Amino acid sequence: MNITMLGTGYVGLVSGTCFSEFGFNVCCVDKDQEKILSLNSNIVPIYEPGLESLIQKNKNSGRLTFSDDIDGNIKKADVIFIAVGTPTRRGDGHADLTYVFQAAEQIANKMDGYTLVVTKSTVPVGTGLEVKEIIKKVNPNADFDVVSNPEFLREGNAIQDFMRPDRVVVGCESEKAKKIISALYKPLYLIETPILFTDLKTAELIKYSANAFLAVKISYINQMADLCEKVGADVHDVAKGIGLDKRIGNKFLHPGPGYGGSCFPKDTLALVKTANQNNSNISIVDTVVQYNSQRKSDMAKKILNELGNNFKNKKVSILGLSFKPETDDMRDSPSLDIIPILQEKGVSISAYDPVAMDEAKKLLKNIEFANDLETCLHNSDALVILTEWNEFRSLFPDYLSKHMKGNTVIDLRNALDPENFIDSNFNLVQIGRARQTNQ
């Protein structure tokens, strides 16, 4: 079975590579010739643990190829996955489906024989039916089915999520399409992965509902963290106490400066817009969208409060720039909101991230980007942890005192063990926890 993956972004590249690992012939295509040239030169444009080696393995086997010949690979495909971007549309917050509809037209013009068209991109409810109508209109004689197969890949854990997923969701309209998708995911049947077959609209809504629910959990524990600080409780014990309830679970109950990344911000906003269009009340998600935006500003104020009044003479070391560890993704990262607010007050910034430096340099200006941890910490008045990379978790007062001028540590991910700072000369400020202070 020949698979063509339209789009070599995060979803397309990971999904295409993993399908080739399942034993299928996969060609990932993109109109960006420079990206295709890089991939054919063994240069992977994104950082994802395990992806580079898996690409190389399947390229060597001949099962995985990269091409800018979109038309030719559409023509020879049995299954075509649409994995193009669906960014937030400027001005109104809806998902921009321009690339999805362009892909549908291109497929309609070049498909040859029965073809299964699968939307892998995250799209609003009803998009699959629109793709179907576009193909019918452009090519009335086309023999095809449209399937919705949303992805549930976590950046930093995407290979494992594809190979051993919690579930696979498939929206389809025919037994023929169901059989083909079942064949694609046959390796997962062997490990008894639940595969849920629904209609197109339901599959699309499952994706948005899942991301919105997780965003609600993140915002909920962040609000509980704020309350913990005011009443003198410990948010980690609160999270553990409620997470042990199997109806709630312990995932996504980690306090921080707000969610970011390529999915939660745009998907929650798109879901709100879809609900508004259909006169349906999802005020919980709407509130979360607004709260998460304000959360990042509040975290900047939290940092400024710890610096005192003389901001212009203060240097702050920022550790972590990506929205989460194990990725170089800077999309909607809290650092993009927090750092400019500090700079507006005259704070000097030194920053370090193990992986995301190149991406960060495209988005953040007037910053001293340090090549290592020690350079970043040198002579700083305060340290702020924005991303909980593992190498930051082992920072101890003795080490910090050798490099920092000041004694303030603001840990917005609660990555550090507060017991290590007891009886030290450092003030450790975390989220939802009593501060460790030298006073």
Q: Percent helix among the residues?
A: 40-55%
Largest sheet: 6 strands, parallel
Provide mean pLDDT, rounded.
95
Radius of gyration: 24 Å
- The oligomeric state is single chain
Number of strands: 14
Distance between the termini: 68 Å
Q: How many helix segments?
A: 18
CATH topology of the largest domain: Rossmann fold
Shape estimate: elongated
Instruction: Just name the CATH architecture of the largest domain.
Output: 3-Layer(aba) Sandwich
Using the coordinates above, name the CATH class of the largest domain. Answer: Alpha Beta
Structural class: alpha/beta
Detail the poorly predicted runs. Answer: none
Q: Domain count, please report it.
A: 2
Would you identify the CATH H-level superfamily of the largest domain? NAD(P)-binding Rossmann-like Domain
> Beta-strand percentage?
5-15%
Which secondary structure elements does this structure contain, and how are they paired or packed?
Blueprint: E1 2-6, H1 10-21, E2 25-29, H2 33-40, H3 51-61, E3 64-67, H4 70-75, E4 79-82, H5 98-110, E5 115-119, H6 127-138, E6 144-148, H7 158-163, E7 168-171, H8 175-184, H9 186-189, E8 195-198, H10 200-231, H11 235-243, H12 264-277, H13 283-307, E9 315-319, H14 335-344, E10 348-352, H15 357-363, E11 368-369, H16 373-377, E12 382-385, H17 390-393, H18 397-403, E13 408-411, E14 427-430
Parallel strand pairs: 1-2, 1-4, 2-3, 4-5, 5-6, 7-8, 9-10, 9-12, 10-11, 12-13, 13-14
